[in-house]
Amino acid sequence: MRLFSKIYILLIFLGLVGSLMITVAAQYDISGYVFDNNGVDLQGVTVNNNTNPSITNASGYYIFSNYDNTSYSIINITGKDKTAPIWDPTPTDQNVDLGVSFSYDVNATDSKTINYGINDTDNFAIDSKGLITNTTILSLGVYGLNITATHRSSNENWCIISVTVQDDTAPIWNPTPTDQNVDLGVSFIYGVNATDSQTITYGINDTDNFKINPSTGLIENNIILSLGVYVLNITATDLSSNENWRIISVTVQDETAPIWDPTPTNQNVYLGVGFNYDVNAIDPQTITYGINDTVNFKMNPSTGLIENNIILALGVYVLNITATDLSSNENWSIISVTVQDYTGPIWNPIPTDQNVDIGMSFSYDVNATDSQTITYGINNTVNFKINSSTGLITNNTILALGVYVLNITATDSSSNLNWCIISVTVQRTSDSSGGSSGGGGGGSGTSGEAFENIVCTETDRQFVGKDLNVKYNYILEGNYVQHIEFTGLTSAGKVAAKVEMLNHTSTIVDKDAPDIVFNNLNVWVGNMGYFSENNVKDPTITFMVDRSWVRDNDIIQNTISFYSYNDYINTWEKMQTQKIGEDSASYQFKANLPIRGSLGPMAISGREVITNPASEPNADPGGLGMITTPFQSNTEQPTSKIATTTLPVTWTGIWKAKVPGFQLLAALIALITLFFISRRKD
What we know:
Blueprint: H1 2-13, E1 28-29, E2 34-37, E3 40-41, E4 54-55, E5 60-65, E6 72-78, E7 86-87, E8 94-97, E9 103-105, E10 108-109, E11 115-118, E12 124-126, E13 131-134, E14 141-150, E15 156-166, E16 172-173, E17 180-183, E18 189-191, E19 194-195, E20 201-204, E21 210-212, E22 218-221, E23 228-237, E24 243-253, E25 259-260, E26 267-270, E27 276-278, E28 281-282, E29 288-291, E30 297-299, E31 305-308, E32 315-324, E33 330-340, E34 346-347, E35 354-357, E36 363-365, E37 368-369, E38 375-378, E39 384-386, E40 392-395, E41 402-411, E42 417-427, E43 454-464, E44 469-473, E45 481-488, E46 493-502, E47 516-525, E48 536-546, H2 547-552, E49 561-566, E50 571-575, E51 577-582, E52 586-592, E53 599-606, E54 627-630, E55 642-645, H3 660-681
Parallel strand pairs: 8-15, 17-24, 26-33, 35-42
Antiparallel strand pairs: 1-4, 2-3, 2-6, 5-6, 7-10, 9-13, 11-14, 12-13, 14-15, 16-19, 18-22, 20-23, 21-22, 23-24, 25-28, 27-31, 29-32, 30-31, 32-33, 34-37, 36-40, 38-41, 39-40, 41-42, 43-46, 44-45, 45-48, 46-47, 47-53, 48-52, 49-50, 49-53, 51-52, 54-55
């Protein structure tokens, strides 16, 4: 060939080639090759008289001449590359976890530069080096990719692979669940959390004792948990059934001591009275109660009831009370139990009124019981004497006919006092059959009230302590007083309050109570002078008035008042009174009581409805003029009607004008004057 080339070149130089013809070996295919005539594109060349000769690897320099052998050129024949790039290695199907970035590198070889491409440019991208990555977050599923490798001669190789997005990764705990402790009786709440690219569903194994929110992972107890250890297997599962689990323990323990409900407080107990105090604590477990002083006290370990073991002496006892649960958690409280004596002696039996014949010695033994030593006394030491130790009462002098009122006292070592008023009636022997009782349920005259004026008498005794509210209760039929109440300012022990219901105005006073009286009564509280501002405050009396009396007497309800007789100024004083209730038979009222001595005569009264007299519509007695007063019927509901009356509302005892008696007196004076004048003339 080299020899051929040289000869051919020589021929060209010699002008021996006369036509444009390239002569190459028949095995070369130069179709599609580029002939470069020093930069001039040659058209219509014929190679071996064949415009489409078959040769291969035709590359090199060739000489040709024109048809007339006048010129020649050296051309470069460059062969066209029809071979595609070759994958190295061949791309394969790929898997990627959900939520994980996809990255896959493909490679092809070729003598020329290779350009890579893919079909799915929405979800993927490929760079010049063949690196494929995702351009979006890939969802679960299979993606088909056609990958191409092309060089500049447009020779292309391609390969189809699948990219499967799958979820093989279980949720990840964030944070990892840990063992838990919870106090007995306290609700269990624990939140677990896991992360995953899919929705997570939470679960637990023990659904008898616990529950879990499948969406949030919040674990709570289903029932009240007992002491002990519970094992929980907690799971977190995604939509692809990938599961992560964690086993934890939940320990129910009791480190909380019982709680006092209420907290024990210091206690007072009266001497000789059994001590009884109940304490209480709360705890999820059974509580056992205890005290330190088991000599003087005992305690029920189950209920917390504390009682005295022995008769407690005066003084202060210190108790340490404990409440312990089954886990040995203990709460304690220290209180004092003060044994004091605010209780006065109790009469046994209650002293009663006595009768004695004139000229006879009087002897009467009274007795009271108390946990302390009792000292007896009486008020009238002129006529009587009492043995302070035994309570025997005898006369000091010869007793005259009459009634003697004795206030007998029994006082213990703590100055608590009880008293009782009795009468000693000195009578003639012939009167002894009369006894001390009155007819028709009459009471005794121990208060100085006339015997025959007393309808009934009722006494109640209550303990009066400092700053204690005292309430006396009365239930006897015929007694219209229901309660007497006040606040004690001193510790007076047992104090009696006596109510006497009377037939008429008390014989102790000399004038009647105002208006129409429903009932007269006497009220006595304590010894003479006890009912003072130093001993009591805020006293009230509750009483009732028959509906029938209101109706039959046409009484205006809001005029019903309670009156107290003031013996210092000899007048009836109206007490502040208010209606507090009613029933089918009566109205109930409450009134203030005066703080004065031992009280005394009282009255309940009201004013009647005043209507126009039909017979004298224009009457005007005494020139008093027309007086208007509210009209109220005797029904329960007052009306707003105003009636005009020509009668005086209240009689004052003196006529202010045109009094007939005054005219008569004036005439008499005139006659006397005329008589003396006539005598002077004589």
